[in-house]
Specification:
Chain A is an alpha/beta fold. In chain A, 26% of the residues lie in helices and 23% in strands. In chain A, the strands form 3 sheets. In chain A, strands 1-11-6-3-2 form a 5-stranded parallel beta sheet, sandwiched between helices. Chain A has a 4-stranded mixed beta sheet with strand order 7-4-5-8. In chain A, strands 9-10 form a two-stranded antiparallel ribbon. Classes of the chains: A alpha/beta, B mainly alpha. At the A-B interface, helix 1, helix 7 and strand 8 of A face helix 2, strand 2 and helix 3 of B.
């Protein structure tokens, strides 16, 4: 008997009987009165930055200004172009280890926890949102949902190879309970919030 | 990040970690970070569904006693654990003793109810190292009755013969003395007298209680005697 069969047989023997599919109480997914401001408050609280961008603004200029005027930004965003991702880097993401700033679009944001959802369609290279020192993300306010329940409903049955919720910069407080921003990923995360 | 740079990604997971639908994940993502570090959600929540072309993802489902625990009605509930660690952070024993004192990968209150399932003899002492204060049960986000299970493990361990002999003898002796008021009063008198005339009989290395402490000064009367005297006065 393979280990898979023996485990399945053991689980079957110990089955406690059937249970109904759990229903998530509606109270857990009550929408926020002002989801956008809640999103900004929570994200700022967990170390993220939010820069509002209005229709009349020059997006490229605002992004560049947010990083001390540099244009040395790797962009895979559909909204604005800086440096482009070349095929060598895409195939060999180890080569991106010195990358300072990466810019990408988010599909949507979640107001309850400040997280944004992205898939390969947005970051192109799976390692990109982790390997850069500073992460810049473009999000439109119309794409902010209230709760995680809304988020998974919005994802629905979408097909993706690798999808990701990111909530703020990487951080740890493992040592002496002292919080350090920038641990196993970017040191900062900036959301450019399009109005 | 490492998972995206390596050619082969191997992930191990306990068989109890399967949930019915992706929709339900929202609830668990909330519970985990809130109970673990107080964050609204974990910074990165990666959703793997396919490896990149030419690369591999392998998932290893680990049983390691879980199917046995599933069959133990009293302890099955412990399989709900999402490893947030909040029972440890609140536990007065864990906070003083630390993780290594549990001698098992999982420490704290949850470790004490999972470890005996794997090896009841080796981890027989863990469920006894608790004050049963119930703080762990109180904070558990998935509502595991941890302190009740600690109490049930004690009974199971003694029933299976993994209790220590010294404890069994001591408990039987205590039960015998406490069962007779006459014997109890006599034993109290004897103890107070011995501690007065020969303190070395109690204050020595054979007495585990004496190892880190001084013995208290023996009182003149038992509480019962003292109360009977003082009640008349007022």
């Amino acid at each position: 008997m393979s280990s898979r069969q023996s485990i399945l047989a053991a689980v079957k023997r110990s089955q406690p009987g059937k249970a109904n599919e759990p229903i998530i109480p509606a109270a857990l997914s009550e929408p926020f009165a002002d989801a956008v401001s809640n999103f900004c408050t929570v994200l700022t609280g967990i170390g993220g930055r939010v820069t509002p961008v209005y229709e009349s603004d020059n997006l490229q200029q605002i992004i560049s200004d947010a990083f001390n005027g540099t244009t040395d930004i790797l962009s895979v965003s559909e909204h604005v172009s800086f440096q482009t991702l070349n095929t060598t880097a895409a195939e060999n993401p180890q080569g991106l280890s010195e990358l300072e700033i990466a810019l990408m679009d988010a599909q949507f944001g979640v107001a309850e926890n400040g997280a944004v959802w992205l898939t390969e369609a947005q970051y192109k290279v799976r390692a990109l949102p982790f390997i850069c020192s500073h992460l810049a993300v473009i999000l439109h306010i119309k794409n902010i949902v209230s709760t995680m329940q809304d988020a998974y409903q919005r994802i629905g049955d979408a097909a993706y190879g690798f999808g990701l919720f990111i909530a703020g910069p990487s951080k740890t407080a493992d040592i002496e309970q002292s919080l350090v921003l920038g641990a196993h990923g970017p040191k900062t995360m900036t959301i450019f919030l399009m109005h | 990040m490492g998972t995206h740079l390596a050619d082969v990604h191997i992930a191990c997971m306990g068989i109890e970690k399967l949930i019915p639908k992706r929709d339900h994940l929202g609830v668990f993502l909330r519970l985990l970070a809130r109970s673990a570090t107080g964050q609204p959600v974990t910074t990165y929540n990666s959703h793997f569904s396919k490896p990149l072309p030419g690369r591999e993802i392998h998932i290893v489902f680990v049983d390691n006693g879980r199917s046995i625990q599933l069959g133990r009605e009293d302890f099955r509930n412990s399989l709900k654990c999402i490893r947030c660690g909040t029972c440890m952070n609140t536990c007065p024993v864990y906070r003083r003793s630390g993780g290594h004192s549990y001698r098992y990968a999982l420490s704290g209150p949850i470790g004490s109810i999972l470890a005996p399932n794997l090896d009841m003899k080796k981890y027989a002492d863990l469920p006894f190292a608790s004050t049963l204060c119930g703080s762990c049960t109180n904070v558990c986000p998935v509502k595991i009755d941890i302190h009740d299970q600690l109490y049930k493990w004690r009974q199971e361990i003694v029933k299976q013969g993994y209790g220590t002999t010294s404890k069994t003898v001591a408990m039987k002796g205590v039960a015998f003395v406490l069962g007779s008021p006459v014997l109890y009063r006599f034993a109290g008198k004897m103890a107070r007298w011995v501690m007065r005339v020969a303190p070395g009989l109690a204050a020595n290395k054979m007495n585990p209680w004496y190892k880190q402490r001084e013995m208290p000064a023996p009182p003149k009367d038992s509480f019962g005697e003292w109360y009977a005297k003082n009640r008349k006065k007022s």
